[in-house]
Design a protein that fits this description.
Layout lengths: L1 E7 L5 H17 L14 H12 L12 E4 L4 E3 L4 E4 L4 E4 L8 E7 L3 E7 L10 E7 L6 E5 L4 E5 L2 H18 L3 H33 L1 E6 L12 H9 L4 H12 L4 E4 L16 E3 L2 E3 L6 E3 H11 L33 E3 L5
Parallel strand pairs: 8-11, 10-16, 11-12
Antiparallel strand pairs: 1-7, 2-6, 3-4, 4-5, 6-7, 8-9, 9-10, 13-14, 14-15
Length: 350
C-alpha cells in the first residue's frame, strides 16, 4: 500500500521552484525528454528528468502555474535508526515521525513549505470478521450512521457537517453579491479543509468501532448517484457541497491499514425497506415506520441495519477496497438477531 506523508522542510526553495516551472513550460512546448536540453536552467538533472517525464508527454496542458521538485527513489537516502531522510541533490536533511516499517520511499515532492513523502508500507492481513457493520452515508443530519445488527448498537457521527455547510453557504452568498471573488475562494477552501478534517475523524471512528467489534464494513455502492436527475435541488446541493466520496476513500485506506475488510451492497431501497421483516415501509424525513410489522426507527439507523444485513455484490470491478478477499467474510447475521432497542452514541468531537 502506498501512503503519502506531509512534512515541513523549513527551507527556501523558491529559486529551484522557479527553475522547475521554466523547465515544465519548456517541456510542454518542445516535448523533449532529454535533460541536456534544459541544462541551461541550472536544475539538477535527477529532478529535471522527472519534470520532463511528467509534462513532455502530456499534450493537454498548455502552461503551468506551479511545479514541485520531484525526487525519485534513487535520489533519496534514508537512515531508519535516526529517523532521517537525506536528499543529496538539494542538500536537504529532515526528520520523519511516521511509521518506520515502510518497505521503501517511492519519491518525494518538494513544495514551497512541505515535502510530500510517498512510501510503500506492507499490507496488513485481513481479519475474518465475526459480524459486519452497515454504514449509511447522508447529505443531511449525521453524515454517517453505523449499525451492528448482532447487538443492535447504533453510532451517529458527523452531525455538525450540515451546520458547517449552511454557515458557509450563507457567507458565500453575501460575498457573491458583494463581488468579493478572491475572498470567496478563500472561504471555499476553508470550508473544504474543515469538512476534510471532519471526514478524517468520522472515518477514524468507524475503523475504531470495526476493530473493537472484530467486524468488517459494508457500504452502499453509490457509483453514478450524481447523474441521477430525479434528486431534489436541496439533495443535489448537499451532494455536491459535501465531498460525497471523500469519506468513502478515507474509510477504505484506513481499513486497509488495519486489515479491516470492506465490501459493497446494492443501495436500492435501503432507506425504505424494513430491517426487521423486509417489507417496504413509510419514510418521512428521518422517521421510518413499517405498516407490516409495526417497527418504528430512525430512518438512517434502519438503512444502516439493512446495509449490514445485505449480501455483498459479487465481482464488483469498480470497488476500491483492497482485495477481493474482503468480500469473503462470515455470513450475514440473520434478520431475527436484530433487537428491538438500539443504543445510540455521538462522540462529542464529531
Amino acid at each position: 500500500m502506498i501512503l503519502t506523508f506531509k512534512i515541513k522542510h523549513n527551507r527556501d526553495f523558491s529559486i529551484e521552484l522557479k527553475k522547475a516551472k521554466l523547465i515544465a513550460n519548456f517541456a510542454i512546448k518542445t516535448h523533449t525528454l532529454s535533460s541536456k536540453d534544459v541544462k541551461q536552467f541550472g536544475l539538477k538533472s535527477i529532478i529535471a528528468n522527472q519534470i520532463l517525464r511528467k509534462y513532455s508527454r502530456n499534450k493537454k496542458i498548455k502552461n503551468v502555474k506551479s511545479v514541485k521538485l520531484t525526487i525519485p527513489n534513487q535520489g533519496i537516502h534514508v537512515d531508519k535508526e535516526k529517523h532521517e531522510i537525506y536528499i543529496p541533490s538539494l542538500k536537504l536533511t529532515f526528520p520523519y515521525i511516521f511509521r518506520n516499517d515502510f518497505e521503501k520511499i517511492n519519491q518525494i515532492e518538494i513544495g514551497d513549505v512541505y515535502a510530500y513523502v510517498s512510501v510503500t508500507v506492507p499490507d496488513k492481513r485481513l481479519i475474518e470478521p465475526q459480524v459486519w457493520l452497515g454504514i449509511d452515508r447522508n447529505t443531511t443530519g449525521h453524515i454517517a450512521v453505523v449499525a451492528e445488527p448482532q447487538t443492535g448498537k447504533v453510532w451517529k457521527l458527523g452531525k455538525r457537517a450540515e451546520h458547517i455547510h449552511r454557515k458557509y453557504r450563507e457567507i458565500r452568498r453575501k460575498l457573491q453579491k458583494a463581488k468579493k471573488y478572491r475572498l470567496l475562494k478563500k472561504i471555499k477552501n476553508r470550508e473544504s479543509r474543515i469538512i476534510r478534517d471532519l471526514n478524517h475523524k468520522v472515518s477514524r471512528k468507524i475503523i475504531e468501532i470495526a476493530k473493537e467489534q472484530n467486524s468488517g464494513v459494508k457500504l452502499e455502492k453509490l457509483d453514478g448517484i450524481r447523474n441521477n436527475k430525479r434528486h431534489t435541488k436541496s439533495f443535489n446541493y448537499g451532494l455536491n457541497s459535501w465531498s460525497f466520496y471523500q469519506l468513502q476513500k478515507f474509510i477504505e485506506y484506513k481499513a486497509k491499514l488495519d486489515g479491516i475488510p470492506i465490501t459493497y451492497v446494492e443501495p436500492r431501497y435501503t432507506s425504505k425497506e424494513c430491517s426487521r421483516c423486509g417489507s417496504i415501509g413509510i419514510r418521512e424525513d428521518k422517521s421510518f415506520k413499517c405498516p407490516n410489522c409495526g417497527h418504528v426507527d430512525h430512518a438512517d439507523a434502519n438503512a444502516s441495519f439493512n446495509i449490514a444485513l445485505r449480501p455483498p455484490l459479487v465481482e464488483d470491478a469498480g470497488q476500491l477496497h483492497t482485495d477481493r478477499d474482503a468480500c469473503k467474510g462470515s455470513t450475514d447475521t440473520p434478520r431475527g438477531a436484530t433487537p428491538r432497542t438500539t443504543e445510540t452514541s455521538e462522540p462529542p468531537s464529531l
